[in-house]
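Re: the request from the purification team.
They wanted to know what the chain is likely to look like in 3D before they choose a buffer screen. I agreed to run a prediction and write the result into the notebook, where they can find it.
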Amino acid sequence: MSWRLAGTYLEVCNCEAICPCRRIDGKQGGRSTYGECTGALSWQIADGAVGELDVSGLRVVLAVWYSDDEPRSPWSWVLYLDERADEPQRAALEDVFAGRLGGTPLSQFPWAFKPSHLLAVVPCRIEIDHTPGKGWFRAGGSVSVQIAAPYDTQSPVTCIIPGHHRTGREVVAERLDVHDDHFDFSYSGRCGYETTFEYGSD
């Protein structure tokens, strides 16, 4: 199936800025700050289609966790899907973000190209504001993220999930809260990343 999604991206995790998972000055990243990474990722789809389905304007959030000390560090994740999507749109977005439709996720989504555990798929109200340097997002009553400010660095920083070929910016989170049936964590002052994305089946 041919598909394409493009828009804006914002993530926050419990690592200290600059997140050691990222490439800094083109140098490959490594182990997370505390050996376990837990966070929340968000996508605002500005333009998108999966087959004949138009998914433009829809939103997606992930809550994630992995340990560097588990073999191949499999990701455990909860997928939050925009409640405004109808059933076929939700199914299509689940297939894209789980990597079932192939394409760029198989080289950019660690939970798709590594062993992983999809714990739940939750349709809910998702609110996103990806204003540069002060973005925020919420997924139902379970996920809440607020950016405080950009992180002060002159080094180019890139992230695998939107793609190392895309420019972006490290930020610092004022708040990262995830409380659902699978995760329960809160952090302040930890790292984040903002950029654009474009994924596809080719």
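For the purification team: The radius of gyration is 16 Å.
Please add any questions underneath this entry.
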